[in-house]
Each structure stands twice: as structure tokens, then as C-alpha cells.
Specification:
Layout lengths: L4 E2 L6 E2 L7 E9 L2 E10 L4 E7 L7 H11 L3 E11 L11 H17 L8 H5 L12 H48 L3 H19 L5 H14 L3 H20 L4 H20 L4 H21 L4
Helix pairs in contact: 1-4, 4-7, 4-9, 5-6, 7-8, 8-9
Length: 303
Amino acid sequence: MGRLFHTRKNNEYMAPLNSMTGFAAATVNLDNGSIGLELRAVNSRFLDLSFRMGDDFRILEPVIRERINAKVKRGKMECRLYFSAKEGSQLPSEPNTIVLEQLAALADQVRHIIPDARAMGIAEILRWPGMLGDNANDPEAMQAAALALVDGAIRDFNASRAQEGAKLAAIIQQKVAGMRALVTDLRPRTPAIVAAFRDKITRRVEEIMQGADPERIHQEVALFAQKIDVDEELDRLSTHLDEVERVVKQGGSAGKRLDFLMQELNREANTLGSKAAAMELSQASVEMKVLIEQMREQVQNLE
């Protein structure tokens, strides 16, 4: 699911439509324990990354952030990277005194040249290569293993988002089909609805304006009939629905574009309702707005 899709019509490669929610977990075993990684994300207007990781991996944060930024565009995302010691493993009873003395001598030389230099903490000293003998993991090896784990987890994470995105796309397309059915049903009936309403208004105006110029009455009624004509709204609804389908099929980071289209669809549905000259148009407007709101709920979950 995480790879690009191939379209049969024009031989172009298109990205999947991704949900902003996703989860992936992976582990890798080392001699003295294992490294675990979890990626999880929920909806967010922008990409909001946070990290929870041990000191051994803190130096990797900029690299991991860059790799995630290259593959994820939106969502509130958490990356948790941690080391778990092997069950039953024991630490040595004392540190390697030779390495410790060498490290202390080097630290004295540094402070002699740079008096304000920060002293190393106990945790940093104990993590120094060779300080705990064979029980200590090589920091460089741990970091390399962690980065390999990150690359695989991002692929799995995007695969889960693409799978969820395909479900959301199917729901959106179903609602689009429902709106198309409403537009298709209304279009041939609209002229008759407007004509009937125009005749009704003409009779009322003639009753109220007895003795008035018939031509003036005809002009006023024709102007009012033009105002309640909804052909333009139906045309724009069809155009926006075409664009929704195109964007969904194209995939990629389509959430913001689809959210804008939901606003446009809602605007046309509202105008249709305000110009409604019959109960059928009012009901269709309400049904359209229900479908649009259902689509908007799904669009809010898309990257």
C-alpha cells in the first residue's frame, strides 16, 4: 500500500490517498537487548512531530525528523525510540578503571585549557565505549540499527495510512455518487418547477396589481423567475464533484484541496436552498448538505 500506484489509462504513477492517522511498531535485537520504535499519528492541520527517546538516540533526532518530513506531510505524530536490556543480563560490579582513569586525565587536560567546559555526567561516563566491558553496546552500532529501524517503520506507517486512506476515498466517492444522483434528478425537473412557480407568481401579482401595465407585470415576474433559476448552481455542483473525484483518484496530499472543495459544494447547496421555488429543491438542498458534511468528516482525516 505504501508504494505508488500505476494507472492504466494514462500510464502515470499516482500516490495513494493517505489518512493522517496511522501506527507502526518495529524492533531489532542486539547482543545485550533490543531497540524498539513506535510511530503513531492523529489528525492535525500541519505536521507536528514530537519525540520520546533515550539519551543514546537523542543525537539522531534531526536525522529522523528529516526522514519523516520527506514521507509525511500532515498529522500530529509521535516517534518513540527506546532500548530494552536483555532479560537476565547483569552489569559488571565496577567500571573499567583503566578507561575511567584515562577519561579523567583527558577531562583534566580539557579543563586546563577550557576552564568553563561542562563536566561529563555519570550517565555519559558509564556509556563511554569500554567503560562497562562487553556488557555495553557500541553507540554507533546502536544508532545505525535505530536508523535502519526508522526507515522500515516509516514504510509500514505509510502503508497503514494508505490502507485507511483507501477506505476514506471509497466513502467520499460514495457520497459524490449520491450528490450526482440528486443533481441528475433535479436537472430535467427544474424548468417545469420554475415555470409552475412563475405562473403561480403571475396570478398573484395580477390579483394584487389589478389595472397595472401587463408588460410591467411580465417583466417583474420574468426577473423573479430568473433569480430562482438554479441551472448555474447545478452546473457548478457538477463541476466541483468532478474535481473531487479527480483529486481523490490523483491521491497524494489532497486533504487541504478537498476541504476547500467541501466549502465550495456547501456554498452551492446553500444557494440552491435559498433560491428554492419548490419543496423538491429545498429537500434536495438539505440532502446535499448532509452528504457534504459526511464527506467533510472523512476529508478531515486525510493528509
